[in-house]
Structure of Cysteine--tRNA ligase:
Amino acid sequence: MPLYTSQPLKIYNSLSGEKEDFKPIHEGNVGMYVCGPTVYSNVHLGNVRTFMSFDVIFRYFLHLDYKVRYVRNITDVGHIVDDVDEGEDKIAKKARLEQLEPMEVVQRYTVDFHDILKSFNFLPPSIEPTATGHIIEQIEIIKKIMATGIGYEANGSVYFDVVKYNETNNYGILSGRNIEDMLANTRDLDGQSDKRNPQDFALWKKAEPEHIMRWPSPWSDGFPGWHLECTAMSTKYLGNHFDIHGGGMDLKFPHHECEIAQNEACTGQSPVNYWMHANMLTLNGKKMAKSTGNNILPGEILSGDNHILSKPFSASVTRFFMLQAHYRSILDFSDDAIVAAEKGYKRLMEAVEALPNIVAGKTSSIDFEAWKQLCYDAMNDDFNTPILIAQLFEAVRFINLLKDGKETISAEDLESFKTAVNAFVFDVLGLSDEKSADADNDKLEGVVNMLIGMRNQARADKNFALSDQIRDQLIALGIQLKDGKEGTSFSIQ
């Protein structure tokens, strides 16, 4: 029997504002779409927290034996600056400032995104589609929306008529906003816009002559609206009606609200059963912002190259820190908080490492099955990772008591206990044991230092061909040597 049959799951649905029993559309299968990054800059820490939340959700569904199709897109068209319909495209702006082709910008920051997520031990999604790879699908959706009379063309651009849509639907169903209030609080455009109503949003924008990223369409050479890409990619790979749509809290309005409107206008049905939103990350009690200097990139945490933290912290410690807060809670990142998390992480790993050495007895003096169910209860309650971590520290206490001979465990319970601890620590939370990674790093360092010694001897013997060969082969492996007054050091690129 699949594990999900015995572990009923509740999910907080942003659409209803309540926790609801999770019932997939197709039994044993989960379709989940999460809004990915716009690749015009390095992925920031808040993004990492959001994607980590859905990585754990993905992991837990897999642990429960669901078959999961997890779709997370790459926005490589580049939506408008400040996420409105007027202004300069984010990727095009970056390309202009750095004198690059837009796709060079896209490639650079897509690689950075993947590298950072890999370092934090994320599972890759099932499908990672790009917006530029789905222009045809987006144009077809626009045609369908225009056929309903809700989409309209003006001077080569196409807009979604929010007021007309709201006559038969509810624009604001997700965010709780009222369209009359929105219209009343919007400044008068004084006839400067092609929109019929200030709240209308772009489905297609006509490209200005200087705009590089453009595609032909029935209306103009232009580019799709930001909201449209997710509608196109989610429905293509998950169908017009799927289980879960996730993203950051900041995307609830207007992005996800507009997605619902587009889907309903196009297909006549609500696209998603459960809307999930991860909350924001602050730094030292304040909003993170480059302009104020209150900002840190994920890679800067790992390298220690920053003015915020007292020392470098590993990816696993950072991951453990983030999962100590529920995904719907605001999390404040600070030096004190991550130092405390590092201590907790080490305690947990020491206990996990001691577990294989526990000797079984004839009987168990602790109810380990009850403990295991409490772990499931935590995750079944809207993926409550802080409660799960609290239960794992209860397991740490059990392990220490067993080590000291103050409690006993039967052979059968010991195997079940080991399996559960490893499953929750490594498979569900996605933590890594740094000591094994450190051991591998020590071996690598030893091998490289041996080669540096051989190179130094070759240079002393004036065998420069061998010296250069060692250096060049290390460079080919991504290991850069640096000769200095105090000898030769190396860095891994």
Remarks:
- The two ends are 47 Å apart (CA to CA).
